[in-house]
Amino acid sequence: MNGAAVGGRQMQQRAGNQLHQRQYSSDHFFPDAGNGGGGSKWLQPGGVAYSQQVDYSRMLRSLHKGTSGEFSMSGEPLTPPLTSRSSSQRKNGEEVSPSELSPGILDLHSFDTELLPEQVTGAGFGAGPLGYGRNMDELETSFSSNKPMSRNLVPSENTLLKSFSVDKEKSSAVAKIKVVVRKRPLNKKEIAKKEDDIITIVPSTNSLTVHETKLKVDLTEYLEKHEFVFDAVLDENVSNEEVYHETVEPIIPAIFQRTKATCFAYGQTGNGKTYTMQPLPLKASQDILRHMHHTYRNQGFHLYVSFFEIYGGKLFDLLNDRRKLCMREDGKQKVCIVGLQEYRVSSLDTIKDLIEKGNATRSTGTTGANEESSRSHAILQLAIKKTVDGSESKPARIVGKLSFIDLAGSERGADTTDNDKQTRIEGAEINKSLLALKECIRALDNDQVHIPFRGSKLTEVLRDSFVGDSRTVMISCVSPNSGSCEHTLNTLRYADRVKSLSKGNSKKDLSSATLNVKESVAAPISFSRFEVNSGDTGEDQKPGWSKQVEKEAFLSYNSVSSGREEDLVISSHAKHFRANSRSSSTAEVFDYSEEVYEPDKPSWRKGKAEAYSAVPADGKTRRVDSLAKRRDSQNEDANCFDSDDDLNELLKEEEDLVMAHRRQVEETLNIVREEMRLLDEADQPGNQLDEYISRLNAVLSQKAAGIVNLQTRLAHFQQHLTEKHILVSSLGP
Ligand SMILES: Nc1ncnc2c1ncn2[C@@H]1O[C@H](COP(=O)(O)OP(=O)(O)OP(=O)(O)O)[C@@H](O)[C@H]1O
Q: Domain Kinesin motor: where (predicted)?
């Protein structure tokens, strides 16, 4: 984790199943004013365990000032005396007691999302050069200042309307799902071990190539290139500021227009997720505040911050002494997080304090790859709410929300062997939620009726952020060292899957179906050592999805199962089986490439669908893949079996798949036999022979693991096939 950014996290020793917590170095934000008790406490207003919408910044400021009030830009008093409660605690201007407050439930989503009026205030800053690009100090000054704005800073109404529509345009132009990859630099340890940087990036084409060293059967090394294209690819020289510009900045305007956006970082432990994620909320807050005070000035918008973590399937409030939270669903299936503290904020300093406080309280642990690894998913939410009829006494309505998720580091089962039991349990829980997250994104983008939000706490909590008008930005963090090659490929494949969920991309794939090649570019290592960061613009690096050149061997002999679901890319039609095997965790190790089939449905994604001419003008679906139209849930599967031909075709393909697996196992066995024969025949003197034998042994054990893996997969496929047969026969003639 990024110790520097957090500024003083300390890891406590884990005792048994106890959490690791980062202790915030300064717990002195507030004296225990309300209780009059001794010692400092972190925001315990009145010492009452009520929730929720604490006007934190007012309290902070009034504490700093020691006065009973401050003034908003409009000149109205904002801050109640320290001893009084925030505006949310007032009822028609009267003080109310905590017992009259909400019953301890913060329903982040209980208020109907409100459509903004299609107009902006006639005064204030525009979002143009005046609004953007100023530093935070200036920004703060302008936010907290009660001075009237200088005349020449006030743009015309036209300019404002223009900037507003530019914002709208910008936000609607942002893809529903954006996948960005960030490569971190080699760290000291890796440099000391003289590890190679195996990733080359060509920013101009958003492409990234992983150069994997592999062994042939005769034990000579060769390089295999895996090439990927994403929405953006950021190399090790890219700053956090640039990451923000590339990822979150474009979606800020959308948050004011009923959009819920989610930005999350994904990647192996120690790859820079926290380093990447931590600065983003503050930068986003800066932009949100700027919009509130300029484009949407005097429209009753307020910003609220909450910060919690999911650790071991449980929720903890990071801004309220790790208070345990419960998640509930109301009758409308809206998610309520009971007890979550939410702070109304209007200054960047306050937000910064809150973020630091939350980060310092997160659960951390030590993994093989990161001494201070996040063992939890941390979710920081910035909610924009609007007062109803300009009344402070009524609960504000949520307009939009931006969630930042610093996912716990993904690591493979294989890497956790040296970890204690707790760490391994954490790892399993983490991987489960990552899988669930991908499943949800996949289902959403396929317009599936059933979205498997219940797959994990993470997805349950995020349900609200994914339905309706939503935006998702995924930042995949990868490390460049050769030792992490397999992890890196797994991460990139996960990202690639998420990216390929986008119908738009799928359509591009389909329109160039044969171009969606899966090939490897291999060369003997002695001849083809790549130049690190040489801007490897080889011939095979062409822009566009069709250039996705990745070795995805049907089943690579050399790949030893890591137990992670990204490890395998088997075949598009196999996705069917997933629906039937959701309950089986082992079945979830399978991942499937997919050629997504696009029915022309009227939905919130229609705009995107229309962008692609592959959908026939008559609106009828075009058969691209006999299987694709029946891929989602079991019910959907059953409903979609149109004809016996389709069913037979499906069964045939599945049988072929099983046969192919069988062949793979047999071929692998043959290789092992051949190697054993070689071993027996090896007629080499002394040391050389020993060395040769030990190398062969290494290869053999690798193969043996591969065989076990293949056999397991084969068994699963056979099981699925049987289930399919049963399903087919149950459908009757
Ligand atoms: N782009 C980068 N530039 C410089 N240093 C980086 C970069 N990315 C990560 N680091 C450094 O690498 C280390 C690990 O990063 P970080 O803690 O963010 O990893 P992580 O992916 O969050 O790990 P985990 O999942 O275990 O929490 C930190 O010391 C961080 O400062």
A: 176-501
User: Is 271 labelled a binding residue?
Assistant: yes
Q: Give the number of the atom of ligand 1 that is nearest the alpha carbon of residue 187.
A: 12
Ligand 1 site residues (CB inside 6 A) read 1-2, 184-185, 187, 267, 269-275, 367, 370, 373-374, 408-409, 477
Most confident of 269-278, 582-591, 618-627, 684-693: 269-278
Confidence band of 423 (pLDDT split at 50, 70, 90): low
Confidence at residue 411, expressed as pLDDT on a 0 to 100 scale: 54
- The atom of ligand 1 lying closest to the CA of 4 is 31
C-beta neighbour count of 704 within 10 angstroms:
14
Residue 504, annotated as binding a ligand: no
Query: What angle, 0 to 180 degrees and rounded to 10, lies between the N-to-C axes of helices 421-445 and 485-500?
Result: 30
The alpha-helical segments, DSSP class H, found in 388-502 are 421-445, 457-466, 485-500
CA distance 337 to 376: 17
Distance in angstroms (rounded) separating the CA atoms of residues 717 and 571? 12
The residue that leads in pLDDT, 290 or 17, is: 290
Dihedral (C-alpha) 679, 680, 684, 687: value to the nearest 10 degrees? Answer: 60
pTM: 0.54
Report the Cα 340 to chain-centroid distance in Å. Answer: 22
CA of 415 to the centre of ligand 1 (A): 18
Annotated binding-site residue? 92: no
Ligand 1 mean position, distance from CA 133 (Å): 27
Nearest CA owner, ligand 1 atom 28: 2
Query: 221-229 and 521-524 as β-strands: parallel, antiparallel, unpaired?
Result: antiparallel
163 membership: H or E segment, kind and range: helix 157-173
In 3-state terms, what secondary structure has residue 471?
strand
Structure token digits, residue 255 = 């948050």
Q: Which residues in 122-256 belong to E strands, given as ranges?
A: 177-183, 199-202, 207-215, 221-229, 232-234
Helix (H, G, I), strand (E, B) or coil at 377: strand
Q: Which helix (H) or strand (E) holds 723?
A: helix 686-731
3-state secondary structure 661-680: HHHHHHHHHHHHHHHHHHHH
Which of 139, 4, 56 is CA-nearest to residue 351?
56
Report which ligand 1 atom has the smallest distance to the Cα of 369: 26
Amino acid letter, 67: T
CA-nearest residue for atom 11, ligand 1, is: 272
Distance CA 193, CA 571 (A): 38
Q: What is the mean predicted confidence (pLDDT) over 139-163?
A: 39
pLDDT computed for residue 422 by the predictor? 63
Give the mean model confidence (pLDDT) for residues 365-378.
Answer: 61
Instruction: Compute the distance from residue 4 Cα to the ligand 1 centre, in Å.
Output: 10
Q: Is 632 helix (H, G, I), strand (E, B) or coil?
A: coil
> Rounded to the nearest whole angstrom, what is the distance from the C-alpha of residue 266 to the centroid of ligand 1?
12
CA–CA gap between residue 603 and residue 448 (Å, rounded):
11
Which residue CA neighbors atom 29 of ligand 1 most closely?
Answer: 2
Residue 213's alpha-carbon distances to 189, 225, 528, 550, in angstroms, are 20, 9, 11, 14
CA of 208 relative to ligand 1 center, distance in Å? 20
Domains defined along the chain, listed by start: 1-30+114-185+237-478 (3.40.850.10), 553-733 (no CATH)
Helix axes 56-65, 348-361, angle to 10 degrees: 110
- Please report, for residues 282, 345, 388, 622, 657, the alpha-carbon distance to residue 297 in angstroms, rounded to integers and kept in the order given: 20, 16, 15, 49, 61
Q: What is the ipTM of this complex?
A: 0.98
Q: How many helices (H) and strands (E) does the chain have?
A: 20, 23
Per the structure block, which two tokens stand in for 553? 């061997």
Distance CA(181)–CA(234), nearest Å, equals 6
pLDDT (0 to 100) of residue 638: 37
- Please tell me whether 273 is known to bind a ligand: yes
272 labelled binding-site residue: yes
Q: Which protein residue's CA is at the shortest distance from atom 3 of ligand 1?
A: 184
